Amino acid sequence: MPEKQEHSQFELFSQDEQGGQYKPKAPQYSFFFHIRGHEKAMLLVMALVLTGIISFSLGVEQGKRLELSQDSRSQREEFTIQVAAFKNKQLALQQARILQGEGLTPLVFAKGNYIILCVGKFSNQESAQPLLIQLQRTYAGCRIRRL
What we know:
This protein has about 150 residues and is an alpha+beta fold. It has two domains: about 45 residues; about 70 residues, Alpha-Beta Plaits (2-Layer Sandwich), CATH 3.30.70. It has three helices and four strands, in the order αβαββαβ. A hairpin with a 2-residue loop joins strand 2 and strand 3. The protein is rod-shaped, with a radius of gyration of 40 Å.
């Protein structure tokens, strides 16, 4: 048997004090509704410019990555043996002549305040290893480095 409920069940449309008539709420307008027409146009232009700048910068970064990957594939790594570093250019050239007299191919180049003396060009570190062992007898601080 159905029991009487003390609380009333809500209907689809609630009744208020004005004779039980349903009165719809006034629609709430969004932020863009309150903006004037010329302001909307300016906001749209700014959004388009910002989007263009972001897409351009992303494209530039992607282009840099693409260029770097192509350069690394096209250039093979070369190694050399660094024999010594000099502050005096004349001493570096004198040692280069001595190495050239021994049948080696010396390379002399400036790096910062120093003149770097290197010997040979090698495609990998393993191929430079035998000459490194030979040069370490005369030049104690030799090492293999990228060219």
